[in-house]
Specification:
Chain lengths: 382, 382, 382, 382
């Protein structure tokens, strides 16, 4: 099954394994005319790079992106954009041991059941490196959204028990802290918490959040293609995510209607909401307010202590995973959340262009008919 | 945009408005040979009917389903199955007032922004009645899954602060309680809580849960078509759902890896997990364990007290919603969760059939080649 | 497999069997704001009705269409439009004999091989009545295209050896002749030819043609979603069509480049072509000229003389088909060609709206940035 | 719009321009377990290489394919297979002149109208080099089909007035002649014809044909996803194809039913047809006979004599195209026809696996129920 494609109009197909020759993505359906160069994409890829701090793996990943097609004289042509990152530092030897057994919390067993065998080097396609293609494509989506007045910002909301204070939220801070926390105090506390967990040969989970600002009202479709439904799929498709929320999320289940409804009022001539419990989406369609998405991420399953499992021969064994693994997934996944959100929102905006006949007629210049004829002859062969 | 279609192989398209002539669904891609009659579907539709109790609306909905195509001599033929339910009790007069303003927590405003106008009678397409088509199609999916050894069971997990005790879980009980709770004690407490809220002209939220039992390992696809990603979309597409969880969901964010990993062991010759924090899915692919999905539902937005809002002329007004509305959405949405889960799981099973070459070769009888020729001549015109 | 759906943005799903309860179609993705009533659709359905003449079957088909959803106060709402035609005159007894054997030129054998059994009444889903849904949906597409300045006209080009003289082409004539020929002389000759064939208990083939006028240049996509590729699929999907041509079609294979190239010149300030061998499409994209599509249709396979075949028990037998069958398929298929062409062209126009960034930015009002902010708050829970 | 993707289960996305850095394809949904190496693909790519003869361009195209992902230890893993061919010989200088005007018969004008500008180097995405990705993917499809007992063979049927004598048909010959004709006499005559046309600074058209042997009956879906409908799209999507036929194609339009019907009879215990006018497809579904597809190709539009056209400033000019161009497209397009046919047939076979419930139950081992339980626990958190 074609499981590596995403989107309807702006459609991406990612490819590549952790320890294969390269990873990449093809963007099919990017509108023509976007100014684009490798640096635009590289900045996003660098955000998923392991940092200098102790809390990310020291594995060196020098992910240099190459634009192979779809850009001519610095602008997108409307034809497929192929982006590739060569793998440079893979050492297959590190991983050979895991070929024979099933690591708890990993996809080793399920891939074997599905496909009969698996590329076990570094997790193959189930590795976090799979997200290289998502981020490369998402960078293009983000740049395009900016041209349409829409910003997409993701950051770490909490790590273990440490939660960011959103009154101190600063986008720039979230781009510079090792945890991707949007304020420095929580960042410092989270780093301390992570170092302790690491010393205890353990790992921790966390929560990341994404806001979409500037999205017009009316984006998203009723029933199955609701904007929140597609965001839920986009976000749950990121490895290790186990819960997705829109707006206030699970908290609404213990509320009363009188507490949870967002009242409408007028603000500068526009309809606005007094609160945003709904997270910017009503009936699956954007309401003009900030869209809020939240993802809960499990602790890194690779931990450096003995674990019980079974091998391919059906024997129960104890394993000790080696190699380099982050004690937390969240900080490097934040940019993936941002990219998946951007891809979803952009596609919904493109799809939305055909919602109203009057706007289509405007687009094709026929809203005031009676102009000169288009097209021609009755005969084919003369 | 074609937002009312769902699924790849087993694909459904729903249609119909709350107060239109009828609602229905077309199932395209149902395998041939399933024994099917209207009663199989009616039983599911009856579960979303308002009950006799005080906690559901007294609006009479006599949803009798009619099979219009795709079944011949009691069995599905492989061609589209068209199912229709006529609307019988709509009284448009009840709703005419809401034409001009935007109810808080409803999709009135967003539909107007998207489409320029809306069918305001009973919420039109954004009404909960939209789910009639989903449930009719889901009933067929559930029957088909049973033939494949898979059960899908949804029920109410909590209402406001009242949570079901899962040690007393009983599927049959969940089908008979007014709250769809799977045990009677919580049901009684929840009913009391709901009656109090109703008296206070308020509404409450809740949580519903679904388990998939008997699903083979290996179902679901890597990357974007992960089983959990598709479940998240399916569930978030149900109106009023604001959060979706797989397995332990948001709780994993505050755990350590050593707590959250599910150890593998052998059980009766098969690989099994000692715990099921993962909810039956690893790397987006089923692991043979029970799949667990949870959905958090907001309180009914229609409440019987004054609310602030704006009208289409941009005036701030106070409104008093009339009509008949449940004080909670969950009990009648449980069957919708069950159906959306079933549709997702079934489609993933059908898609999975082409995962391995050896199984395809078996299917087409070519795994031991060298048999007699199939097909024929070199020439077209002789 | 979901084989009864067609289109990306404007997507239809047809359903129904020749002798089932009803036939119909769901249109998902029709833009909001189109004025639509049952008469708009009925006019198209009436064109596929058997006529008064001798050359079409006397089976009475009173196909009255009912709009079940998606239209409110006379305009489309943007939500699915469900259209249904009840079957009124089916008499299953007529067809019971064919249950056991395979009619030459029909799909009896292939349906049995695919599905294990079939609805044999009147051909079931493989009957020409399957096109009721296509025509109902196509009528809506045609009306929408007219609003965008595009006309789609199909007619009979030839019947057996009788070809229409295109210098006498008259759209109105093609709507009134029993053969759907666009000029009366060929119509008369064709009728005579058909009556002779009928007397000889035989049937004849023919060719039908469709022109699309007023289509702007730039519609269609490179590579696989070429406008001509999609037209080819649309047209070949009509039962009994065995060849599809664009522009001069198969004639180009025996031409020189110097004969076949269409020179460009200027005409009233616009780029135009001096000839239209290409049929209005270059590189899969419309060039602003009339799009020309042609379909070759086989003779009706049901003929009233003895034929050799086999039955389900594998015995060779001679059969004599009874019932009422047209000696030619073309005249009643012309409106199906028109509808399939319209559906394809309309969908391509909707898809094309996202081809250029500058036009998307115009659509969303961001081409001259720096206006007031959209959207809002940073915080979800306050 | 995502126009560069093709297929449902076995889905490909091609990318790349004539003079960009590289061209390639991602195959998403290839079943796991196929033995695959670069040579398997290279053999197909070599067939679209310009040959040593006078009738193909002398432009050197050294298309060496690289497998970048999806293959581990010589077998496909079920994850996306990324294939790339670096462009080595492009000299952009050759083409700079064409930037400003519209070549007759080319897509220059339509790309400008669609996208606002175009990559004019060698035709960019509209070049015949676009088919590199199709052929690379098609090679994999062909290898997979062979494992399933299906052969796909394309060859040149006619060039200008020279037609191959099918009684001398030899697959091996078709792989070695410069014209891809399947017999040497017609090949010699066609070469002579082409050399004459070339001397006259002209180009010629032709016809190519493809047969699918060994395809089981039952492949393809009713209505829109008919096997012949999808073949028509696949084939018409190849640049320069203007007509597509199945079986006897346009010839059926002038036949009687008694001539055109293929009688069924028994042959070695199986149902067979006495003739194959239908080209192996009835009602859109394969009938077990050889599938026959034919494509008519226009003469190369680039000819070496003066032509009238217009430029981007709207001036009428005369142009003289330079560079290297084949006087005929057909011989190098034959392998593209073979590949597009293979991709279509393979996808239809994979999709067909879910047609019957009994076979799905067999696949999942539930046709004789009552075996040991699968799956597990009722509780998530313990």
């Amino acid at each position: 099954m074609a499981g590596s494609g995403y989107g309807t109009i702006f459609r991406i197909t990612t490819w590549g394994e952790s320890h294969g020759k390269a990873l990449g993505v093809v963007i099919d359906g990017c509108p023509a005319g976007l100014s684009l160069e490798e640096d635009d994409i590289q900045r996003y890829l660098d955000r998923r790079k392991p940092g200098a701090s102790n809390i990310t793996t020291r594995r060196k990943e020098d992910d240099a992106v190459e634009i192979l097609s779809g850009v001519f004289r610095g602008r997108t042509t409307g034809t497929p954009i192929s982006l590739m990152v060569r793998n440079t530092s893979q050492i297959s030897g590190d991983y050979s041991e895991i070929a024979s057994y099933y690591r708890p919390g990993h996809a080793d067993y399920t891939y074997d059941e599905k496909y009969g065998f698996r590329d076990y080097r570094g997790g193959g396609r189930s590795s976090g490196r799979e997200t290289v293609g998502r981020v490369a494509a998402g960078a293009v989506a983000c740049k395009l959204l900016e041209q349409l007045g829409v910003q997409v910002w993701a950051y770490t909301r909490s790590i273990g028990p440490v939660e960011a204070d959103m009154h101190r939220f600063d986008r720039e801070v979230s781009l510079s802290t090792p945890t991707a926390m949007p304020e420095r105090e929580a960042d410092a506390a989270a780093v301390a918490y992570l170092e302790k967990a690491k010393k205890e040969t353990d790992s921790v989970g966390g929560c990341m959040e994404c806001m979409v600002k500037g999205l017009p009202a009316g984006i998203g479709d009723p029933v199955f293609e609701k904007l929140d439904a597609n965001l839920a799929k986009a976000v749950m498709s990121i490895g290790a995510v186990k819960a997705v929320e829109i707006g206030d999320g699970y908290r609404v289940a213990s509320r009363k209607g009188s507490e949870n409804n967002d009242a409408f009022h007028m603000e500068g001539g526009s309809v606005a909401k007094s609160t945003n419990h709904a997270g910017g989406i009503l009936g699956g369609i954007s309401d003009g307010d900030t869209v809020m998405v939240r993802a809960y991420v499990k602790p890194t399953p690779s931990i450096f202590r003995g674990q019980r499992t079974v091998n391919q021969s059906g024997e129960e064994i104890e394993i000790h995973i080696k190699g380099r693994h982050d004690p937390i997934i969240v900080p490097r996944a934040v940019v993936v959340l941002e990219c998946m959100t951007a891809l979803t929102v952009l596609d919904a905006m493109l799809v939305n262009m055909s919602a109203r006949l009057e706007r289509i007629a405007d687009f094709y210049g026929t809203s005031h008919m009676g102009k000169g004829s288009r097209g021609g002859r009755n005969f084919t062969q003369e």
